[in-house]
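Standup notes
- DV: blocked on the single-chain target, sequence here:
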Amino acid sequence: MSNSPFEADGFERLSLSRYKRTEWVCILFVVLFSLTTLLHGLQAVYFRRWFLLISAVLCGVLEIVGWSGRLWTSVSHNPSLLAPFVMQNTTTLVAPTRLLAACFDIFAIVINQLGPQYARLSGDRYKAVFLFFSFSAAALQVVGSILSFTNNQSPLSSHLALGGIIIQLVAIVLFVALILEFNTRFAANRPINSVSIQGETHGVADVPIKLVLIGISVSTFFIFVRCIFRTVELAEGWRGKLATTEWYFAVFDAAMIVIAMFAINVFHPGVLLRHQPNVNHVTRDPEVEGKPDKEKPFIVRHMIILPFVLGGITRIKARWSSPRHAPTT
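- DV (later): unblocked, structure below
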Protein backbone atom coordinates (compact mmCIF):
# COMPACT_ATOMS: atom_id res chain seq x y z
CA MET A 1 0.00 0.00 0.00
CA SER A 2 1.29 3.44 -0.89
CA ASN A 3 2.10 5.91 1.86
CA SER A 4 1.05 8.90 -0.23
CA PRO A 5 -2.26 9.84 -1.83
CA PHE A 6 -0.24 11.02 -4.82
CA GLU A 7 1.39 7.63 -5.34
CA ALA A 8 -0.23 4.71 -7.14
CA ASP A 9 -0.35 1.15 -5.87
CA GLY A 10 0.50 -2.11 -7.56
CA PHE A 11 2.92 -3.27 -10.23
CA GLU A 12 0.84 -1.83 -13.07
CA ARG A 13 0.76 1.57 -11.38
CA LEU A 14 4.53 1.67 -11.13
CA SER A 15 4.71 1.98 -14.90
CA LEU A 16 1.86 4.45 -15.40
CA SER A 17 4.12 6.93 -17.13
CA ARG A 18 5.21 4.22 -19.63
CA TYR A 19 8.51 6.02 -20.30
CA LYS A 20 10.74 8.64 -18.70
CA ARG A 21 9.83 12.19 -19.68
CA THR A 22 12.62 14.41 -21.02
CA GLU A 23 12.77 17.50 -18.82
CA TRP A 24 13.76 20.05 -21.47
CA VAL A 25 10.99 18.85 -23.81
CA CYS A 26 8.42 19.34 -21.04
CA ILE A 27 9.76 22.82 -20.25
CA LEU A 28 9.71 23.76 -23.94
CA PHE A 29 6.04 22.91 -24.39
CA VAL A 30 5.01 24.50 -21.08
CA VAL A 31 6.62 27.73 -22.32
CA LEU A 32 5.16 27.52 -25.84
CA PHE A 33 1.63 26.77 -24.62
CA SER A 34 1.93 29.54 -22.02
CA LEU A 35 2.92 32.07 -24.70
CA THR A 36 0.13 31.24 -27.13
CA THR A 37 -2.46 30.99 -24.34
CA LEU A 38 -1.49 34.36 -22.89
CA LEU A 39 -1.69 35.89 -26.36
CA HIS A 40 -5.10 34.29 -26.97
CA GLY A 41 -6.37 35.66 -23.67
CA LEU A 42 -5.19 39.19 -24.41
CA GLN A 43 -6.60 39.07 -27.95
CA ALA A 44 -9.96 37.71 -26.79
CA VAL A 45 -10.38 40.45 -24.18
CA TYR A 46 -9.02 43.32 -26.28
CA PHE A 47 -11.10 42.48 -29.36
CA ARG A 48 -14.10 41.34 -27.29
CA ARG A 49 -14.21 37.90 -28.87
CA TRP A 50 -15.42 36.36 -25.63
CA PHE A 51 -16.15 32.92 -27.07
CA LEU A 52 -12.40 32.38 -27.45
CA LEU A 53 -11.99 32.43 -23.66
CA ILE A 54 -13.88 29.14 -23.35
CA SER A 55 -12.39 27.62 -26.48
CA ALA A 56 -8.84 28.57 -27.52
CA VAL A 57 -7.79 29.91 -24.11
CA LEU A 58 -9.25 26.92 -22.28
CA CYS A 59 -7.42 24.60 -24.69
CA GLY A 60 -4.16 26.32 -23.84
CA VAL A 61 -4.79 26.18 -20.09
CA LEU A 62 -5.49 22.44 -20.29
CA GLU A 63 -2.32 21.86 -22.31
CA ILE A 64 -0.28 23.84 -19.76
CA VAL A 65 -1.71 21.72 -16.94
CA GLY A 66 -0.99 18.53 -18.89
CA TRP A 67 2.59 19.42 -19.71
CA SER A 68 3.16 20.64 -16.17
CA GLY A 69 2.13 17.15 -15.08
CA ARG A 70 4.64 15.64 -17.50
CA LEU A 71 7.32 18.01 -16.14
CA TRP A 72 6.39 16.98 -12.58
CA THR A 73 6.90 13.33 -13.52
CA SER A 74 10.22 14.18 -15.15
CA VAL A 75 11.74 16.07 -12.21
CA SER A 76 10.37 13.73 -9.54
CA HIS A 77 12.09 10.64 -10.99
CA ASN A 78 9.16 8.67 -9.57
CA PRO A 79 7.03 6.88 -12.19
CA SER A 80 4.53 5.73 -9.53
CA LEU A 81 3.15 9.23 -8.91
CA LEU A 82 -0.53 9.20 -9.77
CA ALA A 83 -1.42 12.93 -9.61
CA PRO A 84 0.84 14.09 -12.49
CA PHE A 85 -0.30 11.13 -14.58
CA VAL A 86 -3.93 12.13 -14.09
CA MET A 87 -3.04 15.73 -15.01
CA GLN A 88 -1.26 14.88 -18.23
CA ASN A 89 -3.35 11.99 -19.45
CA THR A 90 -6.71 13.73 -19.07
CA THR A 91 -5.97 17.29 -20.10
CA THR A 92 -3.79 16.66 -23.16
CA LEU A 93 -6.38 14.22 -24.47
CA VAL A 94 -9.31 16.63 -24.16
CA ALA A 95 -7.72 20.05 -24.79
CA PRO A 96 -7.77 20.04 -28.64
CA THR A 97 -11.57 19.65 -28.65
CA ARG A 98 -11.80 23.22 -27.34
CA LEU A 99 -9.51 24.57 -30.06
CA LEU A 100 -11.59 22.81 -32.68
CA ALA A 101 -14.67 24.47 -31.17
CA ALA A 102 -12.94 27.84 -31.71
CA CYS A 103 -12.54 27.01 -35.41
CA PHE A 104 -16.25 26.15 -35.59
CA ASP A 105 -17.22 29.47 -34.00
CA ILE A 106 -14.91 31.53 -36.20
CA PHE A 107 -16.27 29.93 -39.36
CA ALA A 108 -19.81 30.69 -38.17
CA ILE A 109 -18.81 34.37 -38.13
CA VAL A 110 -17.47 34.07 -41.68
CA ILE A 111 -20.74 32.44 -42.81
CA ASN A 112 -22.78 35.32 -41.49
CA GLN A 113 -20.45 37.88 -43.05
CA LEU A 114 -20.42 36.39 -46.54
CA GLY A 115 -24.02 35.16 -46.66
CA PRO A 116 -25.88 32.51 -44.62
CA GLN A 117 -27.83 31.53 -47.74
CA TYR A 118 -24.72 29.77 -49.07
CA ALA A 119 -24.35 27.57 -45.99
CA ARG A 120 -26.04 24.24 -45.38
CA LEU A 121 -26.88 25.45 -41.84
CA SER A 122 -27.36 28.87 -40.30
CA GLY A 123 -24.57 30.17 -38.09
CA ASP A 124 -26.32 29.29 -34.82
CA ARG A 125 -27.44 25.82 -35.95
CA TYR A 126 -24.00 25.20 -37.38
CA LYS A 127 -22.39 26.01 -34.02
CA ALA A 128 -24.91 23.87 -32.13
CA VAL A 129 -24.25 20.80 -34.30
CA PHE A 130 -20.49 21.01 -34.05
CA LEU A 131 -20.48 21.85 -30.37
CA PHE A 132 -22.48 18.65 -29.86
CA PHE A 133 -19.71 16.75 -31.66
CA SER A 134 -17.10 18.58 -29.58
CA PHE A 135 -18.69 17.85 -26.20
CA SER A 136 -19.48 14.24 -27.12
CA ALA A 137 -15.85 13.65 -28.11
CA ALA A 138 -14.59 15.34 -24.94
CA ALA A 139 -16.95 13.32 -22.70
CA LEU A 140 -15.79 9.97 -24.11
CA GLN A 141 -12.16 10.97 -23.87
CA VAL A 142 -12.54 12.09 -20.25
CA VAL A 143 -14.26 8.84 -19.25
CA GLY A 144 -11.63 6.78 -21.07
CA SER A 145 -8.85 8.75 -19.44
CA ILE A 146 -10.34 8.33 -15.95
CA LEU A 147 -10.70 4.59 -16.47
CA SER A 148 -7.08 4.39 -17.60
CA PHE A 149 -5.85 5.16 -14.08
CA THR A 150 -8.70 3.63 -12.08
CA ASN A 151 -8.72 0.29 -13.88
CA ASN A 152 -5.02 -0.37 -14.56
CA GLN A 153 -5.22 1.04 -18.10
CA SER A 154 -7.72 -1.55 -19.27
CA PRO A 155 -8.56 -1.98 -22.98
CA LEU A 156 -12.00 -0.47 -22.28
CA SER A 157 -10.41 2.84 -21.30
CA SER A 158 -8.44 3.10 -24.54
CA HIS A 159 -11.51 2.05 -26.57
CA LEU A 160 -13.63 4.81 -25.02
CA ALA A 161 -10.93 7.40 -25.61
CA LEU A 162 -10.58 6.08 -29.16
CA GLY A 163 -14.32 6.54 -29.66
CA GLY A 164 -13.97 10.20 -28.66
CA ILE A 165 -11.10 10.70 -31.10
CA ILE A 166 -13.09 9.07 -33.92
CA ILE A 167 -16.03 11.41 -33.24
CA GLN A 168 -13.58 14.28 -33.47
CA LEU A 169 -12.27 12.98 -36.79
CA VAL A 170 -15.81 12.70 -38.17
CA ALA A 171 -16.53 16.26 -37.05
CA ILE A 172 -13.39 17.55 -38.79
CA VAL A 173 -14.20 15.75 -42.06
CA LEU A 174 -17.76 17.11 -41.99
CA PHE A 175 -16.44 20.56 -41.09
CA VAL A 176 -14.04 20.60 -44.05
CA ALA A 177 -16.80 19.37 -46.39
CA LEU A 178 -19.11 22.20 -45.31
CA ILE A 179 -16.32 24.76 -45.71
CA LEU A 180 -15.64 23.55 -49.25
CA GLU A 181 -19.34 23.56 -50.14
CA PHE A 182 -19.82 27.05 -48.71
CA ASN A 183 -16.79 28.46 -50.55
CA THR A 184 -17.88 26.83 -53.81
CA ARG A 185 -21.45 28.12 -53.58
CA PHE A 186 -20.29 31.58 -52.57
CA ALA A 187 -17.81 31.84 -55.44
CA ALA A 188 -20.45 30.69 -57.96
CA ASN A 189 -23.21 32.74 -56.30
CA ARG A 190 -25.38 29.64 -55.92
CA PRO A 191 -27.35 29.78 -52.65
CA ILE A 192 -28.77 26.63 -51.09
CA ASN A 193 -32.31 27.72 -51.97
CA SER A 194 -33.10 28.49 -55.60
CA VAL A 195 -34.61 31.79 -54.47
CA SER A 196 -32.54 33.86 -52.09
CA ILE A 197 -34.24 34.72 -48.81
CA GLN A 198 -35.29 38.36 -48.59
CA GLY A 199 -32.81 40.45 -46.70
CA GLU A 200 -29.82 38.16 -47.24
CA THR A 201 -26.86 39.75 -48.94
CA HIS A 202 -23.83 38.54 -50.84
CA GLY A 203 -20.84 39.61 -48.79
CA VAL A 204 -17.40 40.44 -50.06
CA ALA A 205 -14.61 37.91 -49.55
CA ASP A 206 -11.94 40.52 -48.96
CA VAL A 207 -8.37 39.84 -47.84
CA PRO A 208 -9.11 39.80 -44.07
CA ILE A 209 -11.83 37.17 -44.44
CA LYS A 210 -9.59 35.08 -46.70
CA LEU A 211 -6.82 35.27 -44.10
CA VAL A 212 -9.24 34.15 -41.38
CA LEU A 213 -10.21 31.17 -43.54
CA ILE A 214 -6.52 30.36 -44.01
CA GLY A 215 -6.05 30.51 -40.24
CA ILE A 216 -8.85 28.10 -39.38
CA SER A 217 -7.84 25.82 -42.28
CA VAL A 218 -4.25 25.58 -41.02
CA SER A 219 -5.43 25.05 -37.45
CA THR A 220 -7.95 22.38 -38.48
CA PHE A 221 -5.35 20.57 -40.58
CA PHE A 222 -2.89 20.22 -37.70
CA ILE A 223 -5.67 19.18 -35.31
CA PHE A 224 -6.61 16.54 -37.89
CA VAL A 225 -3.01 15.24 -38.04
CA ARG A 226 -3.00 15.01 -34.26
CA CYS A 227 -6.30 13.09 -34.32
CA ILE A 228 -4.89 10.59 -36.81
CA PHE A 229 -1.91 10.01 -34.51
CA ARG A 230 -4.14 9.61 -31.45
CA THR A 231 -6.42 7.21 -33.33
CA VAL A 232 -3.53 4.90 -34.20
CA GLU A 233 -2.03 5.27 -30.71
CA LEU A 234 -5.25 4.35 -28.90
CA ALA A 235 -6.00 1.55 -31.35
CA GLU A 236 -2.69 0.00 -30.29
CA GLY A 237 -3.58 0.45 -26.61
CA TRP A 238 -1.80 2.17 -23.75
CA ARG A 239 1.16 -0.25 -24.06
CA GLY A 240 1.61 0.10 -27.82
CA LYS A 241 4.68 1.51 -29.51
CA LEU A 242 3.25 4.98 -30.08
CA ALA A 243 2.02 5.31 -26.49
CA THR A 244 5.41 4.26 -25.09
CA THR A 245 7.66 6.43 -27.28
CA GLU A 246 8.05 10.05 -26.20
CA TRP A 247 9.03 11.72 -29.47
CA TYR A 248 5.89 10.49 -31.23
CA PHE A 249 3.74 12.28 -28.66
CA ALA A 250 5.88 15.43 -28.65
CA VAL A 251 5.84 15.79 -32.44
CA PHE A 252 2.43 14.49 -33.48
CA ASP A 253 0.40 15.72 -30.50
CA ALA A 254 1.98 18.67 -28.71
CA ALA A 255 3.72 20.28 -31.70
CA MET A 256 0.59 19.94 -33.84
CA ILE A 257 -1.56 21.76 -31.25
CA VAL A 258 1.09 24.45 -30.69
CA ILE A 259 1.09 25.22 -34.43
CA ALA A 260 -2.72 25.11 -34.55
CA MET A 261 -2.99 27.59 -31.66
CA PHE A 262 -0.40 29.99 -33.07
CA ALA A 263 -2.20 29.86 -36.45
CA ILE A 264 -5.29 31.38 -34.81
CA ASN A 265 -3.06 33.92 -33.03
CA VAL A 266 -1.60 35.07 -36.34
CA PHE A 267 -4.85 34.99 -38.35
CA HIS A 268 -6.98 36.20 -35.47
CA PRO A 269 -10.63 37.10 -36.19
CA GLY A 270 -10.43 39.96 -33.72
CA VAL A 271 -7.61 41.56 -35.72
CA LEU A 272 -8.80 40.76 -39.23
CA LEU A 273 -12.54 41.20 -38.66
CA ARG A 274 -12.33 43.98 -36.09
CA HIS A 275 -14.66 46.19 -38.13
CA GLN A 276 -17.10 43.34 -38.71
CA PRO A 277 -19.91 42.57 -36.26
CA ASN A 278 -19.83 39.44 -34.13
CA VAL A 279 -21.82 36.39 -35.23
CA ASN A 280 -24.59 37.29 -32.78
CA HIS A 281 -24.94 40.72 -34.37
CA VAL A 282 -25.97 39.39 -37.77
CA THR A 283 -29.64 39.18 -38.67
CA ARG A 284 -31.63 38.21 -41.73
CA ASP A 285 -34.16 40.98 -41.22
CA PRO A 286 -33.60 43.53 -44.01
CA GLU A 287 -34.97 46.35 -41.84
CA VAL A 288 -32.23 45.98 -39.27
CA GLU A 289 -29.47 44.55 -41.46
CA GLY A 290 -26.28 46.49 -40.94
CA LYS A 291 -27.52 47.94 -37.64
CA PRO A 292 -25.86 45.74 -35.00
CA ASP A 293 -26.84 46.25 -31.38
CA LYS A 294 -24.28 46.99 -28.75
CA GLU A 295 -23.55 43.51 -27.52
CA LYS A 296 -22.73 42.97 -23.89
CA PRO A 297 -19.75 40.81 -22.96
CA PHE A 298 -20.27 37.04 -23.02
CA ILE A 299 -20.17 36.70 -19.23
CA VAL A 300 -22.59 39.58 -18.65
CA ARG A 301 -25.11 38.26 -21.19
CA HIS A 302 -25.16 34.84 -19.55
CA MET A 303 -25.51 36.16 -16.00
CA ILE A 304 -29.22 36.58 -16.73
CA ILE A 305 -29.68 32.90 -15.89
CA LEU A 306 -28.08 33.32 -12.45
CA PRO A 307 -31.29 34.34 -10.58
CA PHE A 308 -33.13 31.30 -11.99
CA VAL A 309 -30.31 28.97 -10.96
CA LEU A 310 -30.14 30.44 -7.45
CA GLY A 311 -33.93 30.33 -7.15
CA GLY A 312 -33.99 26.66 -8.12
CA ILE A 313 -31.28 25.81 -5.60
CA THR A 314 -33.16 27.67 -2.86
CA ARG A 315 -36.42 25.81 -3.59
CA ILE A 316 -34.66 22.43 -3.61
CA LYS A 317 -32.94 23.23 -0.33
CA ALA A 318 -36.21 24.36 1.25
CA ARG A 319 -38.01 21.22 0.09
CA TRP A 320 -35.42 18.87 1.49
CA SER A 321 -35.17 20.75 4.76
CA SER A 322 -38.97 20.52 5.29
CA PRO A 323 -40.23 18.21 8.11
CA ARG A 324 -41.45 15.47 5.74
CA HIS A 325 -37.94 15.10 4.33
CA ALA A 326 -36.24 15.22 7.71
CA PRO A 327 -34.42 12.01 8.58
CA THR A 328 -36.21 9.69 10.97
CA THR A 329 -34.56 8.57 14.17
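- Follow-up: Residues 200 and 284 are 6 Å apart (CA to CA).
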